[in-house]
Amino acid sequence: MRALLFCCVLVVPFNFLLSSPAALGQAVAPPEQTTTDESASEETEEANEQDNDGDAADGNDNSDEDASTGDNQENSDKQTEEDNANADDVDSLKMADPPEDVNEALSKVWKSVWEMWNSFLGRLPLFILAFAVLVLTWFIASLAQRLARRMLRGVSIRGSLKDLIRQFLYIGIWIAGLTVAAGVIFPGLNAAKILTVLGLSSIAVGFAFKDIVENFFAGILILWGFPFETGDFIECNGIKGKVEDTTIRMTTIRQVDGQLIVVPNAQLFKNAVYVITSQRYRRTTIIAGVAYDEDVDQCREIITKAVESCESVTKEKPIQIFAQEFGASSINFEVTWWTGSTPVAERKSRDEVVAAVKRALDDAGVEIPFPYRTLTFKEPLPIQKEEAIS
Question: How would you classify residue 51: left for phi > 0, otherwise alpha for psi between -120 and 50, otherwise beta?
Answer without folding.
Answer: beta
